[in-house]
Amino acid sequence: MTGLLFGTGGTPHSAKTPSTISGIERIAELGLGCMEMEFVQGVRMGEAGAHQVAEAATRHGVKLSAHAPYFINLNAHEPEKIAASQERILQTARIASLCGADSIVFHAAYYLGDPPEKTYRVVKKHLGEVMNQLKQENNRVLIRPEIQGKPSQFGTLDEVFNLSTELEGVAPCIDFAHWHARAGGFNSYPEFASILKQVKERLGRAALDDMHIHVSGIAYGKKGEIKHLDLKESDFQYVELLQALKDYEAKGIVICESPNLEEDAQLLQTTYNALHKAG
Ligand SMILES: [Zn+2]
Protein backbone atom coordinates (compact mmCIF):
# COMPACT_ATOMS: atom_id res chain seq x y z
CA MET A 1 0.00 0.00 0.00
CA THR A 2 1.30 3.46 -0.77
CA GLY A 3 0.67 6.25 1.69
CA LEU A 4 -2.38 6.61 3.90
CA LEU A 5 -6.00 5.97 3.01
CA PHE A 6 -8.70 7.97 4.79
CA GLY A 7 -12.24 6.88 5.56
CA THR A 8 -15.04 6.63 8.07
CA GLY A 9 -15.96 4.50 11.05
CA GLY A 10 -19.26 3.18 9.70
CA THR A 11 -21.33 4.16 6.68
CA PRO A 12 -21.04 7.90 5.86
CA HIS A 13 -24.08 9.97 6.92
CA SER A 14 -24.57 11.14 3.34
CA ALA A 15 -24.91 7.59 1.96
CA LYS A 16 -28.22 6.70 0.28
CA THR A 17 -29.01 4.09 2.96
CA PRO A 18 -27.22 2.98 6.14
CA SER A 19 -26.18 -0.30 4.52
CA THR A 20 -22.53 -1.30 4.16
CA ILE A 21 -22.80 -1.38 0.36
CA SER A 22 -24.29 2.13 0.23
CA GLY A 23 -21.43 3.14 2.51
CA ILE A 24 -18.82 1.73 0.14
CA GLU A 25 -20.44 3.51 -2.82
CA ARG A 26 -20.52 6.81 -0.94
CA ILE A 27 -16.87 6.48 0.20
CA ALA A 28 -15.89 6.09 -3.45
CA GLU A 29 -18.03 9.07 -4.55
CA LEU A 30 -16.43 11.24 -1.88
CA GLY A 31 -12.97 10.29 -3.10
CA LEU A 32 -12.10 8.60 0.20
CA GLY A 33 -10.23 5.30 0.34
CA CYS A 34 -11.48 3.09 3.16
CA MET A 35 -14.31 2.30 5.57
CA GLU A 36 -14.58 0.43 8.86
CA MET A 37 -17.71 -1.70 9.14
CA GLU A 38 -19.17 -1.12 12.58
CA PHE A 39 -20.32 -4.44 14.01
CA VAL A 40 -20.34 -2.73 17.40
CA GLN A 41 -23.86 -3.87 18.37
CA GLY A 42 -23.31 -7.39 17.05
CA VAL A 43 -22.25 -9.14 13.84
CA ARG A 44 -25.47 -9.22 11.84
CA MET A 45 -24.01 -9.76 8.39
CA GLY A 46 -24.30 -13.24 6.92
CA GLU A 47 -22.01 -15.03 4.49
CA ALA A 48 -24.02 -14.14 1.38
CA GLY A 49 -24.09 -10.48 2.43
CA ALA A 50 -20.35 -10.55 3.08
CA HIS A 51 -19.67 -11.81 -0.45
CA GLN A 52 -21.73 -8.94 -1.89
CA VAL A 53 -19.83 -6.48 0.28
CA ALA A 54 -16.49 -7.90 -0.89
CA GLU A 55 -17.59 -7.55 -4.49
CA ALA A 56 -18.71 -3.92 -4.00
CA ALA A 57 -15.48 -3.03 -2.18
CA THR A 58 -13.36 -4.46 -5.00
CA ARG A 59 -15.46 -2.79 -7.67
CA HIS A 60 -15.18 0.63 -6.01
CA GLY A 61 -11.60 0.26 -4.81
CA VAL A 62 -12.52 0.78 -1.16
CA LYS A 63 -10.41 -0.91 1.52
CA LEU A 64 -12.46 -2.40 4.36
CA SER A 65 -11.85 -3.18 8.02
CA ALA A 66 -14.30 -4.15 10.77
CA HIS A 67 -14.94 -3.09 14.36
CA ALA A 68 -15.95 -5.97 16.63
CA PRO A 69 -18.90 -5.69 19.06
CA TYR A 70 -18.42 -3.53 22.15
CA PHE A 71 -19.53 -6.40 24.41
CA ILE A 72 -16.11 -7.94 24.75
CA ASN A 73 -14.09 -8.31 27.94
CA LEU A 74 -11.21 -10.77 27.80
CA ASN A 75 -10.68 -10.11 31.51
CA ALA A 76 -14.27 -10.91 32.53
CA HIS A 77 -14.42 -12.82 35.81
CA GLU A 78 -17.07 -15.28 34.56
CA PRO A 79 -15.88 -18.03 32.17
CA GLU A 80 -19.06 -17.77 30.07
CA LYS A 81 -18.39 -14.07 29.46
CA ILE A 82 -14.85 -14.88 28.32
CA ALA A 83 -16.16 -17.52 25.92
CA ALA A 84 -18.78 -15.10 24.55
CA SER A 85 -16.12 -12.41 24.13
CA GLN A 86 -13.84 -14.78 22.24
CA GLU A 87 -16.74 -15.87 20.05
CA ARG A 88 -17.53 -12.23 19.15
CA ILE A 89 -13.93 -11.66 18.04
CA LEU A 90 -14.02 -14.88 15.99
CA GLN A 91 -17.37 -14.01 14.37
CA THR A 92 -16.07 -10.56 13.42
CA ALA A 93 -12.85 -12.01 11.99
CA ARG A 94 -14.72 -14.65 9.98
CA ILE A 95 -17.16 -12.20 8.39
CA ALA A 96 -14.45 -9.56 7.92
CA SER A 97 -12.35 -12.09 6.06
CA LEU A 98 -15.25 -12.93 3.73
CA CYS A 99 -15.67 -9.18 3.13
CA GLY A 100 -12.05 -9.01 2.01
CA ALA A 101 -10.97 -6.97 5.05
CA ASP A 102 -7.39 -7.30 6.31
CA SER A 103 -7.98 -6.16 9.88
CA ILE A 104 -10.47 -6.09 12.70
CA VAL A 105 -10.40 -3.75 15.67
CA PHE A 106 -11.75 -4.47 19.14
CA HIS A 107 -11.85 -3.18 22.71
CA ALA A 108 -10.01 -5.91 24.58
CA ALA A 109 -10.97 -5.62 28.23
CA TYR A 110 -11.70 -3.75 31.45
CA TYR A 111 -9.43 -4.06 34.46
CA LEU A 112 -12.40 -4.54 36.84
CA GLY A 113 -10.12 -3.52 39.70
CA ASP A 114 -7.43 -6.09 38.84
CA PRO A 115 -3.79 -4.99 38.69
CA PRO A 116 -2.75 -4.13 35.12
CA GLU A 117 -0.05 -6.86 35.06
CA LYS A 118 -2.57 -9.53 36.02
CA THR A 119 -5.07 -8.19 33.49
CA TYR A 120 -2.40 -8.32 30.82
CA ARG A 121 -1.64 -11.99 31.51
CA VAL A 122 -5.33 -12.91 31.43
CA VAL A 123 -6.02 -10.96 28.23
CA LYS A 124 -2.94 -12.42 26.54
CA LYS A 125 -4.00 -15.98 27.43
CA HIS A 126 -7.55 -15.53 26.14
CA LEU A 127 -6.50 -13.65 23.02
CA GLY A 128 -3.87 -16.32 22.36
CA GLU A 129 -6.66 -18.92 22.30
CA VAL A 130 -8.53 -16.83 19.72
CA MET A 131 -5.40 -16.54 17.60
CA ASN A 132 -4.86 -20.31 17.69
CA GLN A 133 -8.41 -20.88 16.53
CA LEU A 134 -8.03 -18.40 13.65
CA LYS A 135 -4.77 -20.03 12.64
CA GLN A 136 -6.53 -23.41 12.47
CA GLU A 137 -9.17 -21.82 10.26
CA ASN A 138 -6.43 -20.34 8.08
CA ASN A 139 -7.93 -16.90 8.73
CA ARG A 140 -5.20 -14.29 8.29
CA VAL A 141 -7.13 -11.18 9.29
CA LEU A 142 -5.02 -9.08 11.66
CA ILE A 143 -6.55 -8.78 15.11
CA ARG A 144 -6.03 -5.27 16.44
CA PRO A 145 -6.67 -4.31 20.06
CA GLU A 146 -7.45 -0.59 20.22
CA ILE A 147 -5.74 2.03 22.38
CA GLN A 148 -8.48 2.96 24.85
CA GLY A 149 -9.52 6.36 26.14
CA LYS A 150 -10.48 5.61 29.76
CA PRO A 151 -8.22 4.52 32.63
CA SER A 152 -10.79 1.81 33.52
CA GLN A 153 -10.14 0.16 30.14
CA PHE A 154 -7.27 -2.17 29.30
CA GLY A 155 -5.46 -0.73 26.29
CA THR A 156 -2.48 1.52 26.97
CA LEU A 157 0.15 1.95 24.27
CA ASP A 158 2.44 -0.41 26.16
CA GLU A 159 -0.22 -3.08 26.62
CA VAL A 160 -1.21 -3.04 22.97
CA PHE A 161 2.41 -2.97 21.74
CA ASN A 162 3.30 -5.85 24.07
CA LEU A 163 0.40 -7.99 22.82
CA SER A 164 1.48 -7.17 19.26
CA THR A 165 5.02 -8.36 19.86
CA GLU A 166 4.04 -11.46 21.83
CA LEU A 167 1.15 -12.83 19.77
CA GLU A 168 1.44 -13.65 16.09
CA GLY A 169 -1.31 -12.02 14.02
CA VAL A 170 -1.94 -9.26 16.58
CA ALA A 171 -1.20 -5.64 15.62
CA PRO A 172 -2.12 -2.28 17.14
CA CYS A 173 -5.05 -0.02 16.38
CA ILE A 174 -3.67 3.34 17.48
CA ASP A 175 -6.47 5.68 18.44
CA PHE A 176 -4.60 8.97 18.84
CA ALA A 177 -7.67 10.77 20.23
CA HIS A 178 -8.16 8.10 22.90
CA TRP A 179 -4.53 8.31 23.97
CA HIS A 180 -4.70 12.11 24.13
CA ALA A 181 -7.84 11.86 26.30
CA ARG A 182 -6.39 9.17 28.54
CA ALA A 183 -2.79 10.27 28.98
CA GLY A 184 -3.39 14.02 28.81
CA GLY A 185 -0.93 15.73 26.49
CA PHE A 186 0.04 13.58 23.53
CA ASN A 187 -1.32 16.37 21.38
CA SER A 188 1.79 17.80 19.74
CA TYR A 189 4.19 16.92 16.94
CA PRO A 190 7.00 15.62 19.20
CA GLU A 191 4.56 13.48 21.19
CA PHE A 192 2.91 12.00 18.10
CA ALA A 193 6.36 11.39 16.64
CA SER A 194 7.44 9.61 19.84
CA ILE A 195 4.57 7.13 19.41
CA LEU A 196 5.53 6.44 15.79
CA LYS A 197 9.16 6.01 16.85
CA GLN A 198 8.03 3.39 19.37
CA VAL A 199 6.06 1.57 16.69
CA LYS A 200 9.16 1.46 14.51
CA GLU A 201 11.51 0.41 17.30
CA ARG A 202 9.25 -2.14 18.96
CA LEU A 203 7.28 -3.57 16.02
CA GLY A 204 9.54 -2.77 13.09
CA ARG A 205 9.28 -0.78 9.88
CA ALA A 206 6.66 -3.26 8.59
CA ALA A 207 4.26 -2.03 11.32
CA LEU A 208 4.68 1.58 10.15
CA ASP A 209 3.91 0.35 6.64
CA ASP A 210 0.62 -1.19 7.79
CA MET A 211 -0.86 1.19 10.32
CA HIS A 212 -4.44 1.17 11.52
CA ILE A 213 -5.31 4.54 13.00
CA HIS A 214 -8.41 6.04 14.59
CA VAL A 215 -8.77 9.81 14.79
CA SER A 216 -11.50 12.17 15.96
CA GLY A 217 -11.92 15.26 18.04
CA ILE A 218 -12.48 14.34 21.66
CA ALA A 219 -13.85 15.72 24.93
CA TYR A 220 -12.17 14.42 28.06
CA GLY A 221 -11.90 14.88 31.80
CA LYS A 222 -10.33 13.23 34.84
CA LYS A 223 -11.70 9.85 33.81
CA GLY A 224 -10.38 10.17 30.28
CA GLU A 225 -12.62 10.11 27.24
CA ILE A 226 -16.08 11.68 27.57
CA LYS A 227 -17.21 11.76 23.95
CA HIS A 228 -16.04 12.22 20.40
CA LEU A 229 -16.25 15.68 18.84
CA ASP A 230 -15.80 17.12 15.36
CA LEU A 231 -12.12 17.97 14.88
CA LYS A 232 -12.66 21.72 14.63
CA GLU A 233 -14.71 21.77 17.85
CA SER A 234 -11.93 20.02 19.73
CA ASP A 235 -8.38 20.80 20.81
CA PHE A 236 -6.95 17.85 18.86
CA GLN A 237 -3.89 18.90 16.85
CA TYR A 238 -4.64 16.84 13.78
CA VAL A 239 -2.35 18.83 11.49
CA GLU A 240 0.62 18.00 13.73
CA LEU A 241 -0.41 14.34 13.78
CA LEU A 242 -0.63 14.24 9.98
CA GLN A 243 2.76 15.94 9.71
CA ALA A 244 4.30 13.29 11.98
CA LEU A 245 2.65 10.49 9.97
CA LYS A 246 4.03 12.01 6.78
CA ASP A 247 7.53 12.44 8.21
CA TYR A 248 7.60 8.81 9.40
CA GLU A 249 6.23 7.72 6.01
CA ALA A 250 3.45 5.84 7.75
CA LYS A 251 1.23 3.79 5.46
CA GLY A 252 -2.10 2.15 6.08
CA ILE A 253 -5.55 3.40 6.95
CA VAL A 254 -6.91 6.29 8.98
CA ILE A 255 -10.48 5.86 10.20
CA CYS A 256 -12.27 9.02 11.26
CA GLU A 257 -14.68 8.61 14.17
CA SER A 258 -15.80 12.23 14.57
CA PRO A 259 -19.60 12.67 14.77
CA ASN A 260 -19.53 14.31 11.33
CA LEU A 261 -17.67 11.23 9.93
CA GLU A 262 -17.02 11.94 6.26
CA GLU A 263 -16.52 15.70 6.66
CA ASP A 264 -13.63 15.19 9.04
CA ALA A 265 -12.32 12.24 7.01
CA GLN A 266 -12.15 14.58 4.01
CA LEU A 267 -10.59 17.32 6.14
CA LEU A 268 -7.88 14.87 7.23
CA GLN A 269 -7.29 13.68 3.68
CA THR A 270 -7.16 17.20 2.20
CA THR A 271 -4.81 18.39 4.94
CA TYR A 272 -2.54 15.37 4.50
CA ASN A 273 -2.40 15.85 0.72
CA ALA A 274 -1.61 19.55 1.17
CA LEU A 275 1.31 18.65 3.47
CA HIS A 276 2.64 16.39 0.74
CA LYS A 277 2.38 19.13 -1.88
CA ALA A 278 4.18 21.51 0.48
CA GLY A 279 7.04 18.96 0.48
ZN1 LIG B 1 -13.26 1.40 19.03
Q: What is the CA-CA span between the terminal residues? A: 20 Å
| Sheet of most strands | 8 strands, parallel
Coarse structural class = alpha/beta
Helix content: 40-55%
Question: Which strand order do you get reading across the main beta sheet?
Answer: 6-4-3-2-1-12-9-8
The count of DSSP E runs of length 2 or more, i.e. the number of strands, is 12
Count every helix, treating DSSP H or I runs of 4 or more residues as helices. 10
Distinct compounds present? zinc ion
- Rounded to an integer in angstroms, the radius of gyration calculated over CA atoms is 18 Å
The low-confidence parts are: none
- SSE sequence, one letter per element: EHEHEHEEHEEHEHHHEEEHEH
> What fraction strand?
15-25%
Shape: globular
Q: What's the overall average pLDDT, rounded? A: 96
Protein architecture, described:
The chain has 10 helices and 12 strands. The chain has 279 residues and is of the alpha/beta class. The strands form 3 sheets. An 8-stranded parallel sheet has the order 6-4-3-2-1-12-9-8. A two-stranded antiparallel ribbon has the order 5-7. It has a two-stranded antiparallel sheet with strand order 10-11. Helix 1 packs parallel to helix 2. The protein binds zinc ion. Residues 67, 105, 107, 146 line the site of zinc ion.
